[in-house]
User: Which sequence fits this backbone?
């Protein structure tokens, strides 16, 4: 008796009926998860995982139908087990590609930058007084600022490195996450009239110490600033980065010789980094005391500008125009004293753009800020927002992505990428970018605001209203409020 043809065997096993029945059920599940995602705000990763499993399940169903659709076959065979196992392996591999392995924002490529990349980790506070924690934080931040003045180096921003203060990881893992080769770590101790600073530079890939230094000095502004300059030059030498004469001059400069003023400045920055209304107002008090103690202290005026500038975003009681006027006055005073400070130039560019609509002057200030602070992620972020109304879309997106490469775990920088994509009419890409941020930090209100804008452009009005509601809830504003 001749063996049945393939078509006859398919009919006997009812393979087509099994496939149609599965597809019908899978379609119901697919539509159901889509509705549940919109109604109950399910995580995007969960929905994607279900969809991947539905696809893999189709092939598993065909295997089961082939072996169990034939009369008298009730046992699970070896080939069947092998096929199902192989499909499950494929499913597992597909699921690992659906979402990130960790709830973190992956940094985009840095554009082939071959300069030595360094992350300065938070300094350990060894001071006997816990209230002196601002000093250790200040040393780390000031070293980042000093090293960022060396054009031959690439530095990582504060937001990304500070995450390792409370959640330390092995140095090779940190280096991989931040996209750097070298890690600088250290400690600070302030006791009585003495200060001790230690630092060590590590090649994280080879787990090799390249340089270390320990400095015991009398407590004075000149001593502390001199040590910072020495550390920066030693680090540059260890990674074979050349400094220009102008960079040597900027690194060796003494912004103040007044210890009290310098201490007030460090405390101001310590509070400013928290970005709440109360902490910004406290920061302003410290910066004002610093300029009172040393009226020639340019960086203290820059701190005042940085504190007054964003205050209206965090406060419902501060008059916005008053804050803008004070921010502008402080920025201009800082530049009168030291025109090489990138931050005040960047802030003036924002004020000229948002308040005075003088795009030409704003672009000039922004370009100058970029020349002076190419390693400052905020400078690049603000330049990206400025280039959008000028119609320089590609350059704007490039600046936004470079900002993310410099500070890869700062959600606001990723949100700026999403905002630029929206104005480029790349709506699906913008939605994915913003939803990825919200998977990591569902309470980041700026991403909800931008997401509502994207949905409005797409005509998805219910989703836009829902996103705007999330923004209002998190920011304490009325959903009908304009951005302020």
Assistant:
């Amino acid at each position: 008796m001749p063996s049945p043809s393939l078509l006859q065997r398919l009919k006997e096993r009812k393979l087509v009926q099994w496939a149609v029945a599965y597809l019908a059920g899978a379609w119901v599940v697919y539509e159901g998860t889509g509705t549940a995602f919109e109604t109950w705000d399910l995580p995007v990763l969960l929905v994607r995982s279900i969809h991947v499993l539905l696809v893999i399940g189709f092939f598993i169903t065909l295997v089961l139908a082939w072996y169990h659709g034939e009369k008298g076959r009730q046992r699970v065979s070896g080939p069947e087990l092998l096929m199902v196992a192989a499909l499950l392996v494929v499913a597992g591999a597909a699921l690992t590609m659906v979402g990130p392995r960790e709830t973190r924002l992956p940094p985009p490529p840095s554009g082939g930058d071959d300069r030595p990349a360094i992350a300065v980790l938070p300094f350990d506070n060894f001071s006997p007084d816990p209230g002196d924690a601002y000093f250790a934080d200040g040393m780390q931040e000031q070293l980042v600022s000093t090293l960022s003045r060396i054009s031959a180096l690439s530095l990582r921003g504060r937001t990304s490195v500070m995450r390792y203060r409370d959640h330390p990881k092995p140095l090779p893992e940190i280096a991989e996450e931040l996209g750097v080769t070298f890690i600088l770590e250290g400690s600070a101790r302030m006791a009585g009239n003495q200060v001790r600073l230690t630092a060590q530079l590590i090649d994280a890939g080879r787990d090799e110490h390249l340089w270390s230094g320990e400095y015991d000095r009398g407590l004075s502004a000149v001593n502390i600033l001199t040590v910072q300059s020495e550390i920066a030059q030693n680090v540059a030498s260890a990674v074979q980065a050349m400094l220009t004469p102008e960079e040597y001059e900027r690194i060796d400069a003494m912004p103040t010789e007044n210890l009290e003023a310098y201490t007030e400045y460090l405390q101001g920055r310590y509070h400013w980094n928290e970005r709440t209304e109360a902490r910004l107002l406290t920061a302003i008090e410290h910066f004002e005391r610093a300029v009172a103690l040393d009226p020639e202290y340019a960086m203290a005026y820059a701190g005042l500008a940085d504190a007054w500038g964003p205050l209206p975003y965090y406060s419902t009681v501060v008059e916005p125009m008053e804050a803008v006027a004070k921010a502008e006055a402080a920025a201009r005073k800082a530049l009168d004293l030291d025109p090489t400070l990138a931050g005040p130039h960047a802030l003036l560019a924002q004020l000229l753009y948002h308040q005075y609509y003088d795009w030409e002057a704003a672009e000039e200030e922004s370009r100058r800020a970029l020349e002076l602070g190419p390693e400052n992620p905020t400078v690049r972020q603000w330049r990206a927002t400025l280039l959008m109304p000028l119609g320089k879309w590609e350059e704007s997106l490039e600046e936004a992505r470079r900002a993310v490469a410099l500070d890869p775990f700062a959600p606001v920088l990723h949100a700026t990428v999403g905002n630029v994509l929206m104005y480029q009419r790349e709506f699906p890409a913008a939605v994915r970018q913003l939803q990825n941020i919200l998977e990591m930090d569902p309470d980041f209100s700026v991403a909800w605001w931008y997401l509502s804008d994207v949905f409005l452009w797409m005509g998805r009005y219910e989703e836009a209203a829902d996103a705007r509601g999330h923004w209002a809830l998190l920011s304490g504003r009325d959903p009908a409020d304009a951005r302020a």
Q: What stands out?
A: Confidence is low (pLDDT under 50) at residues 37-44, 98-104, 106-111. Strands lie at 117-120, 124-125, 154-155, 182-191, 194-203, 208-218. Residues 15-40 form the longest helix (26 residues). The CA atoms of residues 173 and 216 lie 32 Å apart.
